[in-house]
Amino acid sequence: MLDQQGYVRSWNSGGERIKGYSQDEIIGQHFSKFYLPEDVEKGMPELGLEAARTHGKYEAEGWRLRKDGTRFRASIVIDPIWHDGQLIGYAKVTRDVTERFEANNRLIEAQKALVQSQKIEAIGKLTFGLAHDFNNLLTVVINSLDMIAVRPGADARTKELVDTAMRAADRGALLTRQLLSFARGQNLVAERHDLNELLARSMELYRRTCGPAVEFRVDLAPNLPPVFIDAAQFEASMMNLVANSRDAMPRGGTVTVSTCLVHRAESDSEDRSQDFVCVRVGDNGSGMSPEVAERATEPFFTTKDVGKGSGLGLSQVFGFAAQSGGFASIESQEQVGTVIQLCVPTAKD
């Protein structure tokens, strides 16, 4: 029970269990003590009493504070108490609905993840079919160009046109490989490799890709177990990640390539857990909003200007990780930076 001004006048065991205050500690205190500081500044306790007095009842749900400072999700009802036409106080009921609230949030997140997974699967199936058909057409084009190039008597102008067409066809073939990688239809040639050695072999190329305005850092964990991986596809993925990080920092910044060993459980059973060697490419660039990060792995989705990106880079990385038996992830925050992690399972003897 509260008086007309909102001071606690009676208390029970339920209030003590939920909020942590004993009867002696809380009686005589204002009920705004249970509200978050920012809600108190907005005047929400007073607004609740006014709404109950005006409309006969006030119902709300929000975050409240326990005695120990922890938060809980509360469903509250405030009823005004009248006697002979005079307001003498309020009856306030609080229910702890934290578990229900969190369970509902988990359900919403699971539904969003399912919808995203189904969308990506549908795009992947469509992409796989289109890429194969496009690849067959490119094969005819490239073979025809090769035959024209070797014909005797071709003048310089014809050779120049053939070279231009061949470069365009090669670019189309690269896009096809990226599409197939996203759709997990690329034929991988997996061999046993030390991931640190693969990175070291191309480190100078990654450094040059960053350019003079970007600082390039390396932090490789020692003694990592070997992995089975397609070296060429891995290097293509790394080039995509490094180039994306560079493009996110037009005024300069830092790109960091690091490796580590991650133990990941596939289920609650420890018997189904596995070790992964992970490569992380991070930057302190512009970062991505949650909405952009959610769509970043979709093929052809890009935030770059027209002509500056195909939108296939991250989709190729994620498709390659999945086809290699691993996974990839994005951690990004606007104006803070982005970290892309590519993980592949350790090789089993």
From TrEMBL:
<dbReference type="InterPro" id="IPR035965">
    <property type="entry name" value="PAS-like_dom_sf"/>
</dbReference>
<feature type="domain" description="PAS">
    <location>
        <begin position="1"/>
        <end position="41"/>
    </location>
</feature>
<feature type="domain" description="Histidine kinase">
    <location>
        <begin position="129"/>
        <end position="348"/>
    </location>
</feature>
<dbReference type="InterPro" id="IPR003594">
    <property type="entry name" value="HATPase_dom"/>
</dbReference>
<dbReference type="InterPro" id="IPR000014">
    <property type="entry name" value="PAS"/>
</dbReference>
<dbReference type="InterPro" id="IPR036890">
    <property type="entry name" value="HATPase_C_sf"/>
</dbReference>
<dbReference type="InterPro" id="IPR000700">
    <property type="entry name" value="PAS-assoc_C"/>
</dbReference>
<dbReference type="InterPro" id="IPR004358">
    <property type="entry name" value="Sig_transdc_His_kin-like_C"/>
</dbReference>
<dbReference type="InterPro" id="IPR005467">
    <property type="entry name" value="His_kinase_dom"/>
</dbReference>
<dbReference type="Pfam" id="PF00512">
    <property type="entry name" value="HisKA"/>
</dbReference>
<dbReference type="InterPro" id="IPR036097">
    <property type="entry name" value="HisK_dim/P_sf"/>
</dbReference>
<dbReference type="InterPro" id="IPR003661">
    <property type="entry name" value="HisK_dim/P_dom"/>
</dbReference>
<protein>
    <recommendedName>
        <fullName>histidine kinase</fullName>
        <ecNumber>2.7.13.3</ecNumber>
    </recommendedName>
</protein>
<feature type="domain" description="PAC">
    <location>
        <begin position="58"/>
        <end position="109"/>
    </location>
</feature>
<keyword id="KW-0597">Phosphoprotein</keyword>
<dbReference type="Pfam" id="PF02518">
    <property type="entry name" value="HATPase_c"/>
</dbReference>
<dbReference type="Pfam" id="PF13426">
    <property type="entry name" value="PAS_9"/>
</dbReference>
